[in-house]
């Protein structure tokens, strides 16, 4: 009886929700039939309640001027909270271990804190398409300088998109599980250069200027969703673990635009795999530099990502204001 | 040992309920994209979440878009995450199953798939 009553109450509640809230499909990366997983390297186009903790990154970086070649290990976290169903804030932070740092010693510490406001302004269920705009702020001086945290602010306006190919014609049915997400972003330092004052061997004052270029950052992820294949195209009989895998490749490119750095492109290609469960996903990617300027060694990135809107649908997993 | 238990618990939590809090199709009979020799008398669909049956429907149409189901979606008495719908007698052809479901955590999802009858 209790169960029946509970179900009745739930049903009344769900009627109200269905009538008043058409926005439920916005939760963590859904557009129609498409579930977009959270990508590890580039930012996602969707607004959601989610937690990436931890993301572990490791690579051996090449010598850069007076900075020696070094092992870089970074552990980072991001917490995203919906304010409105389509408007969210992300708080990000990281801890880095450099061996050795620029001073020749092993150094560790927190990087600058980052805050990003994102607005998902377009969602098409039929075409499995999402567009959003974001504005990121890296708060200068909040991290430790010895691990490279800058003393100035950096602003990051961005346009993000996601597109699933479920609307392809039947003749291309095997391509329907494909999806692409991407970002184009400006990385705009608030200070054009850093001046360092020092005395040379003769006791004269020297001023060293380190320039901070504006950077055009862009990237995209191409993924093939085995869950989508199984549920919407053809059940090929994959076992339970495999039927939730999403292999993907992420491309992440930085094009400095000015201040002596124009044309000095850096970037990585990141092939990997995501396993999406009920409440969280696991991801692992190789980090492959695209040129010698970026590096010569292959690194890795691993992440645990929690779907807070599904773990806590009635508390921290729902928007602060507005319907679900 | 504690770490192994924690990992085991996390893994169990992840796989106990299939993918995502939203209800998606886990499998169906006839199977998604399959070709069957004998015309089925019903379609059964299993989802990744328990459903609110009053707000969850299956619909089966032929190539001309005509309904070939009996019109009433029924919950599976033994499985709150499954639905079934009886079919009218059908011949050879391609059939589309459209589903729209409300999971017990109040998320609405919908989708479709096809199967062929090729006697």
Provide a brief overview of the structure.
The complex is a heterodimer of chains A (324) and B (119). Chain A has 324 residues and is mainly β.
Give a verbal description of the structure:
The complex is a heterodimer of chains A (324) and B (119). By secondary structure, chain A is mainly β. Chain A has helices at residues 2-20, 226-233, 308-311; strands spanning 30-31, 34-35, 50-61, 70-84, 87-99, 107-110, 114-124, 129-138, 154-164, 178-189, 193-199, 205-211, 215-224, 245-256, 266-276, 280-289, 299-307. In chain A, the strands form three sheets. Chain A has a twelve-stranded antiparallel barrel with strand order 3-4-5-7-8-9-10-13-14-15-16-17. In chain A, strands 1-2 form a two-stranded antiparallel ribbon. In chain A, a hairpin with a 7-residue loop joins strand 5 (87-99) and strand 6. Chain A is elongated, with a radius of gyration of 22 Å. By secondary structure, chain B is mainly β. Chain B has one helix at 2-16; strands spanning 25-29, 35-36, 42-47, 57-61, 69-76, 79-87, 93-102, 108-117. In chain B, the strands form two sheets. Chain B has a four-stranded antiparallel sheet with strand order 1-3-6-5, with no helix packed on it. In chain B, strands 2-8-7-4 form a four-stranded mixed sheet, with no helix packed on it. In chain B, a hairpin with a 2-residue loop joins strand 5 (69-76) and strand 6. The longest helix of chain B has 15 residues, at 2-16. Chain B is globular and about 55 Å long. The N and C termini of chain B lie far apart (57 Å). Residues 12-19 of chain B have low confidence and may be disordered. Chain A binds chain B through residues 10-11, 13-15, 17-18, 24-25, 27-28, 30, 32-33, 35, 173, 227, 230-235, 240-241, 244, 276-280, 307, 309-311, 313, 324, and chain B through 13-22, 24-28, 31-34, 48, 52, 54-55, 102, 104-113.
